[in-house]
């Protein structure tokens, strides 16, 4: 029994191996994305993103090690401090004066901190995990307080879930970051389901939300004047929907990105053009549109293998979640599964016209420090839950 308590026996080697595979896929895809030569520095010299991505992965491994060291009870006790700290950092983007170099604007939005010697950091990527921790703590505490469930307590829980969501979502929408906002909403939807709220409440809420969404989509297509004059929408906000549904009619503007994405993936056909065989130029092919690089290089077979790798990751995370006995740890893992699954679905979906284009990277593959470190922080929590859960399980057996 003591042999099973060794750190090496409690470490999740399968999850570590999956991350290694993502690391290799990421390096190959980013290296290929650079072959078109569109990325140059101020001296017109080609830029290599590989060293930076390796650096971010190393930092991510350090984050996992630190995160895994702490026990779930410690996260539970500090949950509101972590959540509140994340909200404060989001608010700091708007509190700091406009002229400060610490705040970086991108596409007109104040979403980034510029840290000298480090680079640009997007706090919203970390807030996703902080939000999951806070939500898991709130739901766990609610169930501990209200042991006997009633319709009233479920309504109360739903109200608290919405309140915990509203605060970070408010600052995210101030950044006009629709993609990140949708991630928070998707995580919340999963929490509503796994929190055990009765379907007498969930079903009307979900149906009502779907109806509102479908109505807004219909109005964007057939009642633009009402949306502009009565609800204050701007014409440019409709272009993303139009370019999604009919990109070839908007090929000179919003639709151009989607058309090049479809051309790149389609040109890969079954087996692709081979490593660094890219011919179609796609903007941001090393970040948000890195799936087009994989599709053009390795075709249907390569993209299918990448999707299977994500299925394997989500399956493994689900298996861990079902093994956990502590409700707080279970909610943490469920939220992380929701976050990763939505990222994958949205990112791949937007490159093949299944969903509208949003600025969401492909987890563990797209280039970017904030996204990668945020995901590594989340995975570090899973490592922690699994690592310390096994300790408690064996120690309780010994006590018996």
Describe the protein's topology.
Elements lengths: L6 H4 L2 H21 L16 H20 L2 H6 L1 H17 L7 E4 L2 E7 L3 E3 L1 H23 L5 H24 L3 H17 L4 H24 L1 H6 L6 H10 L9 H13 L22 H34 L3 H25 L17 H31 L1
Antiparallel strand pairs: 1-2, 2-3
Helix pairs in contact: 2-3, 2-13, 3-15, 5-6, 5-7, 6-7, 6-8, 6-14, 6-15, 7-8, 8-14, 12-13, 13-14, 14-15
Would you mind describing this structure in some detail?
This protein has 400 residues and is mainly α. It has one domain. Helix content is 69%, strand content 4%. The protein has helices spanning 7-10, 13-33, 50-69, 72-77, 79-95, 123-145, 151-174, 178-194, 199-222, 224-229, 236-245, 255-267, 290-323, 327-351, 369-399; strands at 103-106, 109-115, 119-121. Strands 1-2-3 form a 3-stranded antiparallel sheet, with helices on one face. The longest helix is centred in the C-terminal third of the chain and has 34 residues, at 290-323. The protein is globular and about 60 Å long.
- Structural domain count: 1
Using DSSP, what is the number of strands? Answer: 3
Evaluate the radius of gyration. Answer: 22 Å
Helix content: 55-70%
Q: So what's the overall shape?
A: globular
Strand content: under 5%
As laid out across the biggest beta sheet, the strand order is: 1-2-3
- What is the mean predicted local confidence, pLDDT? 87
Main sheet? 3 strands, antiparallel
Could you name the ranges where pLDDT drops below 50 across 5 or more consecutive residues? Answer: 391-400
The number of distinct helices, counting runs of at least 4 residues, comes to 15
Q: Specify the structural class.
A: mainly alpha
Amino- and carboxy-terminal Cα gap: 13 Å
The string of secondary-structure elements, in order, is: HHHHHEEEHHHHHHHHHH
């Amino acid at each position: 029994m003591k042999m099973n308590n060794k750190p090496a026996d409690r470490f999740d080697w399968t999850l570590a191996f999956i991350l290694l595979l993502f690391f290799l896929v990421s390096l190959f895809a980013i290296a290929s994305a650079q072959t078109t030569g569109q990325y140059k520095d101020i001296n017109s010299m080609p830029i290599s993103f590989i060293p930076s991505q390796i650096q971010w992965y190393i930092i991510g491994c350090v984050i996992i090690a630190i995160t895994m060291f702490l026990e779930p009870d410690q996260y539970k006790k500090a949950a509101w401090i972590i959540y509140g700290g994340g909200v404060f950092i989001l608010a700091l983007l708007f509190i700091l004066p406009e002229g400060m170099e610490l705040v970086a604007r991108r596409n007109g939005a104040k979403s980034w901190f510029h840290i000298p010697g480090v680079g640009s950091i997007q706090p919203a990527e970390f807030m996703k995990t902080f939000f999951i921790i806070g939500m898991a703590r709130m739901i766990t505490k609610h169930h501990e307080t209200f042991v006997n469930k009633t319709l009233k307590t479920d309504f109360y829980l739903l109200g608290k879930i919405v309140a915990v969501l509203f605060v970070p979502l408010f600052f995210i929408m101030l950044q006009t970051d629709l993609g990140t906002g949708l991630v928070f909403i998707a995580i919340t939807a999963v929490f509503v389901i796994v929190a055990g709220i009765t379907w007498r409440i969930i079903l009307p809420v979900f149906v009502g939300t779907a109806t509102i969404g479908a109505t807004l989509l219909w109005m964007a297509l057939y009642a633009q004047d009402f949306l502009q004059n009565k609800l204050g929408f701007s014409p440019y906000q409709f272009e993303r929907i139009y370019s999604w549904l009919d990109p070839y009619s908007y090929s000179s503007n919003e639709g151009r990105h989607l058309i090049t994405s479809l051309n790149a993936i389609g040109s890969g056909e079954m087996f692709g053009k081979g490593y660094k065989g890219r011919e179609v130029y796609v903007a941001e092919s090393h970040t948000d549109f890195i799936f087009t690089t994989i599709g053009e290089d390795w075709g249907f077979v390569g993209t299918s293998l990448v999707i299977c790798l994500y299925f394997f990751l989500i399956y493994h995370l689900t298996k861990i979640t079902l093994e956990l006995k502590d409700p707080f740890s279970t909610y943490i893992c469920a939220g992380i599964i929701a976050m990763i699954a939505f990222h994958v679905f949205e990112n791949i979906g937007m490159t093949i016209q299944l969903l509208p284009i949003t600025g969401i990277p492909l987890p563990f593959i797209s280039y970017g420090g904030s996204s990668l470190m945020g995901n590594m922080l989340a995975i570090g929590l899973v490592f922690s839950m699994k690592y310390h859960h096994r300790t408690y399980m064996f120690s309780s057996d010994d006590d018996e």
